[in-house]
Automatic annotation (TrEMBL):
Topology of the protein relative to the lipid bilayer: Lipid-anchor; GPI-anchor
GO molecular function, one term: acetylcholine receptor regulator activity
One GO term of the biological process aspect: cell differentiation
Xref: CDD domains: TFP_LU_ECD_LYPD6B
Protein name: LY6/PLAUR domain containing 6B
Secretion signal span: 1-25
Record-level GO cellular component terms: plasma membrane; side of membrane
Subcellular location as annotated: Cell membrane
Keyword Lipid metabolism: no
Keywords: Cell membrane, Disulfide bond, Glycoprotein, GPI-anchor, Lipoprotein, Membrane, Signal
InterPro entries linked to this entry: LYPD6-like, Snake_toxin-like_sf
Amino acid sequence: MLLFYHTLAVASLQIFICSGNWAIAKNINFYNVRPPLDSTPFPNSFKCFTCANAVDNYNCNRWAEDKWCPENTQYCLTVHHFTSRGRSTSVTKKCATRDECRSVGCHHHRETGHKECISCCEGMICNVEIPTNHTNAVFAVMHAWRTSEGGRRAISIPLLASVVTVTLL
Ligand SMILES: *[C@@H]1O[C@H](CO)[C@@H](O)[C@H](O)[C@H]1NC(C)=O
């Protein structure tokens, strides 16, 4: 029975991520980023913009390393430091675990007058933008797609696929 639930979970996750990637890929044409066509290192693998202490978002994305995220990570994390006037001072992006994504949100450092915002997202190269306030410094997971019009179809497909997968097994 445990195996059954595990299989179900894995199957729905896989299809969910696939359908989610499709939705994201449709929305992103920024910086001409496309999901890679080369073979993936393991199932559900993904990439994040990855940079450490870039001066701003452009310089992070422009020179970001293009590599697959480690298997123990599931999300893309972005740390943005900026002045009270909104000028970026540091941008860091990386692959992250669910635990690391608990730190999303914005904090104000009184001594320096600087702000720090952290956001997390799920999906292929999803961390294009940088968080600037409480609205976008959030943990954005794929389930958010359910609320959109096209998302309704995306639920039934994973459900159907899970049932089919389980039946075949
Ligand atoms: C948060 O930042 C985004 C992008 O910079 C902006 O469009 C939005 O209006 C901001 N929201 C608030 C509540 O300040």
